[in-house]
Amino acid sequence: MMFSTELLLPLVVLLPLVAALTLACVRIGKRRLAMVAVTTSGLTLAGVIVLVPDVLASGRLTWSLPALTGRFELTADAISLLFALSGAFVWFCATVYATAYLSDDTGRKRFQATSLFVLSANLGVVLAGNLPTLYVCFELLGLAALLLVIHDGSEKARKAGIKYFWMTLIGGFFLLAGILLVRAMAGSDSIEPLPPGAGSPVMLWTAFVLLLIGFGVKAGMVPLHTWLPDAHPAAPAPASALLSGVMIKTGAYGIFRMVHVIFRPEGGVESALSAWALNARLGLIVLWLGIATMLVGVILALGQHHAKRMLAWHSVSQMGFVLTGIGAGVWLGSEGAMGTAGGLLHVVNHALFKASLFLGAGVVALHAGTADMYRLGGLWRRMPVTFTCMLVAAAGITGIPLFNGFVSKCLIHHALVEGAAREGGDWLVVAEWIFLATCAGTVASFVKLIGLVFVRASRQPPPQPVRDATGPMSTAMILLTIPIIVIGLQPGIVLEGLIVPGLKTLAIPAEPVGHYLDTYYLGPSDLRSFGTVLVGGIALFAVGTRLGLFKLAAPAWFGVDIWYRRAAVTFVILCRHGGKRAAGLRVTRPQPKRIKRTRSLPGQMLTVLDERLSAIDGTRARRNTLYARLDELRDSIVRAAVDESRLRTRGQRKAESVRADRHLNATRMMAGLIATRLLERTMALTADDNADRSVSTAIEKIGTERDDFARMAADAAETWLEGGDPGKLLEAGRVDPERDAGPRPSTAANRDWWTELCEFIFRPAVRHWPATERSDDASLTRAIRALLERTTRDPSLGLGLAFLLLLALSASSILI
Amino acid sequence: MTLTSLLPLIALALPIIGGLAALGAGRRNRRLGIAVVAGTAVTTFLITALLALAAKDGLLREMTLVQIAPPVWIVFRIDPLGTLFAATVSGLFLLALIYAFGYLPDDRRQWRFHAFAMACQGCMIGVAFAGNLVTLLVFYELFSLLSYPLITHDRTRVAVAAGLKYLVYIITGGAFVWAGIILVFHLGGEIRFLPGGLADINGSPGLVLATFACLVTGFGVKAALMPLHGWVPDAHPAAPAPFSAVLSGVMVATGVFGILRVMFEIFGVSRLIEMGVLPWLGGIAGASVLLAAARAVGEDDLKRRLAWSTISQMAYVLMAVSTIGGQAVTGAFVHITHHAFLKGGLFFCAGLVATVTGATRISQLRGLAQRMPVTSLALTVLALGLVGIPPLSGFISKWLLGLGLADAGAMVRLGVMLAGALLAAVYLWPIIYRIWLPTDDPRFAHSHSREASGWMLGILIATGMLAVILGTAATLPGFPLDLAKNAAQWLVEPPP
After folding, report:
1. Do the Cβ atoms of B403 and A578 come within 8 Å?
2. What pTM did the predictor assign?
3. B410-423: per-residue pLDDT in tens?
4. Cα–Cα distances in angstroms (integers) from residue B300 to residues A569, A576, B305, B369, in the given order
5. Angle of helix B326-357 versus helix B373-387 axis, rounded to 10
6. Residue spans per domain, chain A
7. Count of H helices and E strands in chain B?
């Protein structure tokens, strides 16, 4: 065949990209948009499916192109295809669903275009063949998904989007740092094991931590997960399914490649035992982080009342399962296939059932009007299809036998048990208990979801007649539930079809997986564990509902989210502050209004910090205080003038409010003119350090004559409205602050020439001060300035002529 | 004298002559003036680009021109770094000069602008092709002085104040460079640029150090190395937008170019390592990166924020070069070129926005995308490019800089670079975010007139596309990355 399968790799990545860019540039109707979107995602899915047999046959397919900083390389092995296949399938279902869900949305073209672009980036990440390609696609994925999060433009979505953006960006920087370190240690771009003795232990650990943070933000790993519970519910339902179901898996993919490939000593090469021990330790860290993630996720999920937020917290929890599996697989070394297979299978499973759950929750929210579980009920009669699909998905996620979740959870459980038996793994017994507790919590949570939303009798009649999902929406959900059941009944399809060949390509012995399928699958010990979990979960649900435990919430300062936000806000305040202080500007209050209102200790500390910083530089602070007083004075003059105007037009206000408004506006304008002029002239006096008292005198004098100014403003306004010239009035009442200020000591000689020169050079061009402010120069500066201004008023002509003369001279000297 | 050796002279003289011709022709007939300017700019760009491609692999030609005083000659030479810089200068000037036709009001003064600008371009090309320190300084001082009328083009009080400050800084810097040149001549016996540094510089270590310090200080004023950066935040906003783009894009880079020449071709790599100045240079540059970026976060005026950003970005170059690693130096050279076009494009956007809507502060930009979608898109692309989002051109230089720093083991500097890139996101993202917000502001919401002048919009789109192309196609031969790699190799490990 002329067509080589390698070309499918770039085709599969580029097709959605091209479609997305085309959609962005053209106008298109609803039906054609739906057709284009569904066809593109369908073709991508078909392309990935076609790749499977060739990859299984040859082990690995590669395609590359010189681009960016080296080569843009795409590589497919069985594990990549696992991620790609599950991702493309979920994307197809979600796109089908979105064509109906967004049928009333004017932004549907933007949504579909962005969705296809994100699909392309996602496939680029999992099919990446070298580190630059991985990084490029990862960054593009994170940024493009922002548009999905803020799709509906509401305030909540925008806030969630901002948090998501900053966490993704900062995570991206950590990832870049880690990748650069790995690249420096390995000397090459490809994703392959580090050569032995590549870098010092410090460098290895630093690279590991940086990469873990970088991928962990995307994967929703604790403590970097805080963007997830806000971003996933804020996005529309099909986007939530994609974000939760597929996008966060790229973080897990990165962590997988990191611990299984990059930091793993090359199989078959003589590597020191210490290298294997390091690898095992890294796996243990990933394992414990996974345990923490799953526990935190499930505890917070139990306390939610909004269905989508609960599902988002469950995504965090289930990603914990995936990380635990991967970590356990690495900890067990050459016998770790069960853990790795469990983690990877859970990736596929979670994609399927979480997407299905989000799509179902979307239908409920759309047709029943709300997603608050406590306000819904009895929907099983009216929405049978949705109910069935969500029931199947809930069975999957809770790990009921014969559904897909059971297999992956049991694999991970077995890996934990074996890990605990290993030397150095004593604490893993605790990990196993936490695992079982989390599973019980998951059961309780989904009993709550299905029970509250569908089964129990509804509390109040729904606001509108509730229809079931129809057409594309139900098709998508049913399509997703089919593999849940199929994989549950025949897990070998995925385990032995894709995972075992993938493990073999990575030189990981895969016998434990087959051993599990033969001995343990649906065996008594697994069913016993499941029974315990089920009973525990139902008990937890009963106790919790009875005692109201699910309505409790931890104080806000307990989570990491608020500390991240405070750190970021403090940083921006310090930057703004530093800039303004250095430029001698008036220091304004810190920007976020929250800090003013809060009486909390950190808020007060920030205010105190701000005041301290502004008090450090005495001169400028003093001038700023004076400026603040003058500003207040100006405001009070304008207010007094407004009162005067209202007084004068009192009679007219009821009859002719238009005339009264014009009078008011004119008076306000005149008062502003007078006050600003006063302020300028007084401010000019403040340049002297010793002029404080005279300036204060001037300010007080102006204050006492405030009503006169108000009357002057109103008179001038009336003159102007009648068509006259108010200038005379304004001039007649002119106040001369200099005259009123009283004697002030001469200060010109006080500053020495060195200070003058420094100020002249380093003082910024203060365009924001009124023009009259520049009367502060002492003799030397004034002399220099006058001389320079005279000679350089417009030196351009002189410069130009001089240049021409120079040209002529050079030309003649060359030619002669 | 063959044609090849005359080419630098032609590339230098053509803009100057073209500018004068435009001054004469444009005042009579606008179309003729536009044709002269455009034609000259395009031809200069083509000549310098051809020279850059030809000189890729090493020193091509050296040409002695005229003798000023017994030991001092005016010498030109064609070498990889110089031609890369000259091509960058010509490219940015081409964009800026055409943009200026849309930006400047159509009156007699615009031809004055073009004449001085093209004279500046000629002198900058002279700097790029200079073969010894005196030639470099002559053209350096010339274009510095010729920039004054351009900075004060608007003739407002602010502009004149900024121009005055600029003059004081530049003249002082020039004095330092003169002192450095005299010391070099005294210690080394010659002032030619030799790859690998001068053969011997005899003198007490203190004196050699003082020479280096003088030269770096003198060029550092133009290169906006903190604390010599004071003129930048005032001069760059005060100049009209096309010249702000040139100032930020290539003029500050000329100072950096001077420092690079001094480092690699007067002192040489081994001598620098012996002197022990590299950690100091790296430290000062690193401090500049962080402090300038932090100041940029606090600025509300758009052009001032971009000016602080320039200081920060140019300090990357010096920080990377202080490690003297091949990859880092390549990244530094590429960064000069890519940053020139990105920052130039951002200033073009700022000028366009100010002309059409009158908004100069970022707080006034809310909802700009409703009125000016193409400009907003270009602004987004260019700003994301500067932050370093793949696959735009800023990512290429950031990646190479990071890789070079990691390879050289300079972990602290790598951290500083990434922190600087993060700060770049902090000061550029609010602009992008704000312009895409919905708004009811009557300036932006309900307007049906044309977005902007065709000249300005076209140049903006071209610059945006350049950011994308230079990023995605970076590894193609003949692109800045390839040229920078050769230049770095030739300078850091010169052939014997």
Report:
1. no
2. 0.81
3. 889 999 999 999 99
4. 17, 9, 7, 19
5. 160
6. 286-553, 558-616, 638-745, 755-816
7. 20, 2
